[in-house]
Amino acid sequence: MPTTIKANLIIQDPIGLHARPAGQIVKLVKESGLEVRIGKVGEELVRANSPLRMMALKAKTGQELVVEIDTEDQALADSIIHQIQDFIKG
Amino acid sequence: MTLESGTVLTGLGVGLKAVVAEVLRIRPHQDLPSAAKHLGDFQKEVEALRAAISNVAVGLDELALRAGGTSAEILEALKMMLEDEELFEAANLQIEAGWNAATAIDLAVDEFGELFAGDEAFEERLVDLKDLAKRVAADIFGISLGLEIPTQGSFVIVGDDFSPADTAQFTKAVVGVITIKGGPTSHTAIICRSRSIPAVVSCAGAKNLLDGQLVLVDPVGDRVVVDGKDSQATTAISFVPKSLDPIIPVRANIGSLEDAIAAAASSASGVGLFRTELLYLSEKYQPTREKQTQSYTEILKAAPEGPIVVRTIDAGSDKPVPFLEMPQEENPALGIRGFRLIQNHKDFIIDQLASLESARKESGREVWVMAPMISTTQEALEFAELARAHGGYKVGIMVETPSIAMTIKDLEGQLDFISVGTNDLSQYLFAADRMNAGLGALMNPWQPALIRILEKIASESAEVGISSGVCGESASDPAFAIVLAGLGFQSLSASKSQVGAVRNALSAVSLKQARGVAQLALAQTSAEAAKAVVLEELSSL
User: Fold this and answer.
1) If exposure means fewest CB atoms within 10 Å of the residue's CB, which of B7, B125, B373, B393 is most exposed?
2) What is the CATH number of the domain that holds B70?
């Protein structure tokens, strides 16, 4: 049973979670081979390998996002979270 | 059939410069088949969809590689959206429901579209996604979309005819254009003229040209020469101005503020045709008089020095104005268009006349107003009365129907001026749809019947003291402009890129010489002979 590592991030990109950052996240997630979920706080999360689902969150600038990564490797998870934070900086 | 070196293909030339480059054939793309069910082989459809998505993705990669920078990042994001497994799964459900692969991907995109609805930034992406779905469908059916014109190199592109959507894709690698169909007033011809791309249209023999073949596009010679050299190009008669002013004033055609500003930078003496419909075609609701006045004032103020001839709205069911009801018609060119709109939209025409009057006063410019598509003396009088009741401008009509051309003398004392639209006059005189690419040769302004009716219009309007001008495409041809001046027209209006060339030609001859040239043209029995004899005479002057 893999553990899940969670983090909360704030979108700083002026257009929100749009196509480009969504694409970058997907690329990262696919390369990692891990199950990663993303969504708004308190709402159902979507799989982060689907750019369309992530865009359909319609997450805007300033919105807090939850990221869940199924892994026991804290260092790897931190690195992924760090990069996602970078992608949504705008 | 392969064309031998030196073969001459005749057509109608557009432009004055010649060019030698290799042929690139553009085949028309077919329409995509409409939504349909598959024949029951679920697995086959799924595989077809997977393969098509992968092909389109590879295409996006290639585009990204060529584009680089931000465009590449956007293309990469698009590719990821296309390859989204959830999109694929949604499409699979549609295939399970019986839809074929092409329909399924389109429906799946629509499903995501609903999720994006109401968010502007994402709705734009939806447009991209819809386009991707179209590309996937095209790949499934083996249909090529778009022109795929290279951005590098130099090509003479050859096709049946090109639509506005096609010409918008012309890159700077397009150095020459040949159309098999299409005439001198076709969209292709107009675009090539305005962008100074040498072209030969209505060139039936071009259907046998092959990709990679070198050709000389020789618009002045109205021909294409296989393996031709630059040195074989027919030299345009170089008109050396002998006087400062042309024998009759040369005005510019405009349709927008940008045009007015560009025309003011040319040597045009005023505006001979201000097409007003462009101000309305994109409006959902009828603009208020204040808004119309403001637009007109801006344009009048920016226009080149001299009188400004404004044409009231020239719209019809083929060019509908969103806020005016224009039911579909069987033959829009012969339908309720131009001044005929007064039947149902008199208020709109009055609004336009009143706004023009306010703009005239505000700008302090000399304004002439004319109505298009007038067929009878009664219509001309109705317009004149209406226009005079609403403004202090000069009042006239367009002459573009053979019927009004037959009754010019009845207009004595009623109008200040007339202006001939040669494109529509040709269309109605020859009963030849000007949009029909196969009838280009009948739209040739050198046709004897057109030249003779023009002579009648010019001489009869002079007889009854009405000022006459020409604002059709034909007035943009320097040699034909000399014929028009010789026939007795008192002003011409050319597309802004041609004003200088027409002015030069009309400054190189005397009125007496122009009259002699016009008489020669009137005596010919074919368009080819009329043009040839005039060019020969002009080069000997």
Assistant:
1) B7
2) 1.10.274.10
Q: For the range A37-46, what are the long-range contacts, defined as Cβ-Cβ under 8 Å and sequence gap of 24 or more?
A: A37/A67, A37/A68, A38/A65, A38/A66, A38/A67, A38/A68, A38/A84, A39/A65, A39/A66, A40/A64, A40/A65, A40/A66, A41/A8, A41/A65, A41/A66
Of B74, B85, B116, the CB nearest to A55: B116
Q: List chain A residues with CB under 8 Å of B80.
A: 22-23, 26-27, 51
Per the DSSP assignment, residues forming a β-bridge with A10 are: A64
Indicate if B175 and B104 belong to the same structural domain.
Answer: no
Rg (CA), chain A: 12
CB pairs under 8 A between A and B: 54
Q: Are residues B189 and B118 in the same domain?
A: no
**Binary contact (A51, B73; C-beta < 8 A):** no
CA dist B111 to B86, B106, B123, B156, Å? 11, 9, 13, 43
pLDDT digits (tens, 9 = 90+) for A39-66: 998 889 999 999 999 988 888 888 899 9
CB B458 within 8 A of CB B468: yes
In whole angstroms, what is the distance from residue B95 CA to residue B52 CA? 15
pTM of the full predicted structure? 0.63
Q: Does the structure's ipTM exceed the value 0.90?
A: no
Chain B closest-CA separation from residue A50 CA (Å): 5
**Of the candidates B183, B199, B272, which has an alpha carbon nearest to the alpha carbon of residue B16?**
B199
Cα–Cα distance for residue pair B388/B350, rounded to 1 Å: 11
> What DSSP line would sit under B454-473, residue for residue?
HHHHHHHHHHTT-EEEE-SG
Structural domain harbouring B105: 42-141
Q: Which chain A residue's Cα is nearest to B74? A: A20
Residue B255's φ and ψ, nearest 5 degrees, are: -145, -5
Q: What total number of domains does chain B contain?
A: 3
pLDDT digits (tens, 9 = 90+) for B193-245: 878 899 999 898 999 999 889 999 999 888 999 999 999 998 777 788 888 89
Q: Nearest residue on chain B to A24, judged by CA atoms? A: B77
Nearest to B122 among A20, A47, A55 (CB): A55
Last residue of a domain, one of B78, B108, B141: B141
Q: Are residues B424 and B499 in the same domain?
A: yes
